[in-house]
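Sorry, explain these C-alpha cells?

***
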Amino acid sequence: MSNGNIYAFSDEPRGRLPDTSAEVTWKKTANFGPSTIIIDNGSYECRAGYAAQQEPCLTFKNLVYRQKGRNSDPDMILVGMDLENLETLRSQLKSPFDKNVVTQFDAQEMVCDYIFSKLGVTSEEQVDHPVFMSEPIVNPNHCRKYMSELLFECYSTPCIGYYTDALGAWYHSQGKATPNQNALIVSIGYQTTHVIPVVDGAIDQPNVRRISIGGYHLDFFMQRLLQLKYPIHSPVISLSRSEEIVQKHAWIAEHYQDTCTSWLDESFYDKKVNDLFTVLV
C-alpha cells in the first residue's frame, strides 16, 4: 500500500488459492471424463489448474519448508501460500530446482502433494486426472525419467505430457493465425534465460543457448544497491522487499542508451526525482 510519497511493503505471501466456495464443475468434462491438470512448474512460481479453466486457480512460490518432528511427532511441512514470512525461514527453505532444472524430487513430491490437495483431488491413493506439466528446454533425460516415476508410481496418474513454456507462449501469442515458420524466442526465467531459434517450424536444437542470468539476479542487484546506499537499513532490506520494488516500481528500458541520455536533461531529471517515493522500512 502507498500513502502520498510513502510506500509500505506488504510483507505477505503473494499468490492465488482456488475458490473452494464455487462449484467445481470444471473438474470433469461431459464427454472426456476427468479434466486434465496443467502445472506450470517454474523455479520462481508454480501455477496449476484444470484445462477447462481460462486461468490457473492456484499460484504460489515454489518453495518448501520442512521441520522434523520430535520423537513421534509428524514433520511440519509448509509449501507455497502456507509460508507466511519467507525471510524468517529463508536459510531453511528448499526448492525442487537447481537453476531451472528439477533435481530435488523429495521437495517436488511435497509440491505435488500441495497442488493436488488444493485442487480438490479426492480420489484415494491416486490422481485420476491426466497431468500436463512444463519442463525446461532440452531437459536432461534423467530428470524427466524421475519426474515421470514420481507421477506414475506415487500418484498413479493415467497419463503424463510435457511442454516447454516458451514454445507454448510463442504459439499462443500468434492466436489462430498460421504460426510463423521462423522465429527467435528469448525466454527470460527466474534463474536462466534461453535463446531458442525456430527454423522452418522446428527448434534448431544445436543452436539453443542458455544464459545463467534471470529475474533473481535483478532482485539481488536491487537489494545490493539499496544496502550500499542505505547501510543503516541493510538488515531490513530483504530479498523479498527488493523483489517487490522491482516488480511494482521498476521498468525495463526498451532503448537503454536513449534512457540514460534522457537523465542528462535537467527538466527530465527534476521530474523523475520529484516522482520518487520514500520507502518505508
In short: The first helix runs from residue 86 to 89. Helices lie at 86-89, 105-118, 141-155, 165-173, 215-229, 239-249, 256-262, 266-275. Residues 190 and 215 are 4 Å apart (CA to CA).
